[in-house]
Backbone:
């Protein structure tokens, strides 16, 4: 391929080359918006149909971890944006530093997600043969429920049962909630893992001094991807953790 | 059309605004707004999330400074998402025989 400095043969100018790359990246991100959009739509319809059980299931997820993870992920977006700025103004060392910080924050997010998944495993909230929304009220010590929490959970569970008709219905609808919870947060986490791989590659290139004010398209485009994944979480957090807390 | 470089100062301001909005949405979730207006808790949570998403798209993702063509592509994506959500939900909403 013809290449003059940083300019590939099919382009007239560096600006045109950059514009094409941004446009291409956004076209890919649109397919991602619609991809996640289908899951958000499924969630909305089922939440509307089984509001009571979805609300109860949502309250069994710890709000604190979700809130901490929101701060961590938005922080990683800030460091990603700073690494793009460093490349644009030619501070090569800073590009690497900010990329590594982004990678660390992304890993912290995934670690916290792992803790949350483990809690759901202990509480028998993973859809499948051993799924049981009544497990914690019959084994309060295994789920670290104190007396007040146990009474509250029993009362809410009873209310959910009265509304939906039976124990079987509560477990069926709660499995639907947790299937969606794991599908949505799992797909999001998968995107984070892909993003972490891309960041590792960026770091390896950045150490070689590959990114300059003239050419930093990989940093810019992987940055766009990273911010997109952040936006998905910005919607997942209220929908899965927040709207039924009061 | 030359490249616009967003300053670190603006990035930090945006980050702080996102933190304040995160705090607000967590606080709003603990207050029962539904007795004022049914579904108000959901509306408040989604409006705040949309404000946060807009800040990220416009400034972290530089769409505010992008070419008209890129802005059109971004808008088209959101518009198509709106079509999918709106038409499907209005279909479900209109099914009186499928009431729960």
Residues:
């Amino acid at each position: 391929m013809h290449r003059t400095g940083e300019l590939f043969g099919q382009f007239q100018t560096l600006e045109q080359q950059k514009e094409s790359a941004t446009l291409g990246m956004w076209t890919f991100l649109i397919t991602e918006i619609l991809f996640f959009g289908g899951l958000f739509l499924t969630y909305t319809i089922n939440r509307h149909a089984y509001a009571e059980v979805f609300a109860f299931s949502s309250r069994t997820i710890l709000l604190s971890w979700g809130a901490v993870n929101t701060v961590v992920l938005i922080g990683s977006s800030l460091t990603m944006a700073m690494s793009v700025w460093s490349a644009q103004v030619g501070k090569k060392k800073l590009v690497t530093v900010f990329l590594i910080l982004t990678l660390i924050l992304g890993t912290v997010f995934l670690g916290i997600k792992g803790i949350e998944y483990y809690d759901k495993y202990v509480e028998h909230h993973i859809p499948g043969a051993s799924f049981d929304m009544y497990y914690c009220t019959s084994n309060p010590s295994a789920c670290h429920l104190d007396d007040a929490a146990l009474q509250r959970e029993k009362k809410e569970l009873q209310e959910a049962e009265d509304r939906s008709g039976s124990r079987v219905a509560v477990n069926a609808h709660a499995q639907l909630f947790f299937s969606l919870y794991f599908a949505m947060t799992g797909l999001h986490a998968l995107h984070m893992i892909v993003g972490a791989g891309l960041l590792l590659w960026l770091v390896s290139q950045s150490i070689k001094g590959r990114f300059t004010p003239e050419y930093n398209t990989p940093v810019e485009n992987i940055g766009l991807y990273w911010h997109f994944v952040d936006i998905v979480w910005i919607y997942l957090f209220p929908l899965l953790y927040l709207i039924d807390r009061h | 059309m030359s490249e616009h470089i967003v300053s670190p100062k603006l990035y930090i301001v945006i980050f702080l605004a996102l933190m304040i909005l995160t705090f607000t949405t967590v606080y709003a979730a603990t207050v029962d707004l539904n007795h004022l207006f049914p579904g108000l808790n959901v509306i408040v949570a989604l409006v705040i999330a949309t404000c946060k998403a807009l800040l990220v798209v416009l400034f972290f993702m530089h769409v505010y400074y992008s070419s008209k063509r890129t802005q059109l592509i971004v808008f088209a994506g959101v518009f198509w998402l709106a079509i999918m959500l709106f038409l499907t939900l209005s279909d479900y909403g209109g099914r009186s025989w499928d009431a729960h």
User: Anything to note?
Assistant: The CA atoms of residues 54 and 82 of chain B lie 15 Å apart. Chain B has a mean pLDDT of 91.
